[in-house]
């Protein structure tokens, strides 16, 4: 999950939100001053523009990483070694105090 830094247009506080959420029509309340920020692709405020561009870039990178992960051949999994449960218990049970 990738996050994007958002700067409030009113109090200039920086906070984070998920890149997947920051799409056209999304609104979020600033945690500090509680002003409602509206995110749109055609927003005029530079803080909103920067957040939208960062979110778009983060989503693009996430899709590319997912495509690479899917296209890569699956590595053969090695079965984990089984532990004998009796060895650990014998030490605990054999303890004398």
Strand order of the largest sheet: 1-2
* Straight-line distance between termini: 51 Å
Percentage of β-strand residues: 15-25%
Poorly predicted ranges (pLDDT <50, ≥5 residues)? none
Strands, count: 4
Name the assembly state.
single chain
Approximate shape: elongated
Arithmetic mean of pLDDT: 85
- H/E element sequence: EEEEHH
Region (Disordered): 54-97
Biased composition (Low complexity): 68-97
Biased composition (Basic and acidic residues): 58-67
Task: Describe this protein's structure.
Residues 58-67 have a biased composition (Basic and acidic residues). Residues 68-97 have a biased composition (Low complexity). Residues 54-97 are annotated as: Disordered. Helix content is 36%, strand content 19%. The protein has 97 residues and is α+β, with helices and mostly antiparallel strands. It has one domain. The strands form two sheets. A two-stranded antiparallel ribbon has the order 1-2. It is elongated, with a radius of gyration of 25 Å. The chain starts with a strand and ends with a helix. The model has no long low-confidence stretch (mean pLDDT 85).
Précis, in short:
With 97 residues, the chain is α+β, with helices and mostly antiparallel strands. Helices cover 36% and strands 19% of the residues.
Question: What descriptive keywords fit this protein?
Answer:
single chain; alpha+beta; 97 residues; two-stranded antiparallel ribbon; 36% helix
Task: List the SSEs and their pairings.
Elements: E1 3-7, E2 14-18, E3 26-29, E4 36-39, H1 46-71, H2 85-93
Antiparallel strand pairs: 1-2, 3-4
């Amino acid at each position: 999950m990738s996050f994007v830094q958002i700067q409030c247009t009113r109090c200039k506080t920086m906070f984070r939100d998920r890149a997947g959420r920051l799409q056209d029509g999304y609104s979020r309340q600033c945690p500090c001053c509680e002003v409602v920020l509206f995110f749109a692709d055609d927003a005029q405020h530079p803080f909103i523009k920067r957040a939208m561009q960062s979110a778009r870039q983060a989503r693009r990178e996430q899709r590319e990483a997912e495509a690479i992960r899917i296209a890569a051949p699956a590595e053969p999994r090695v079965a984990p070694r089984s532990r004998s449960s009796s060895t650990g218990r014998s030490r605990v049970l054999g303890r004398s105090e």
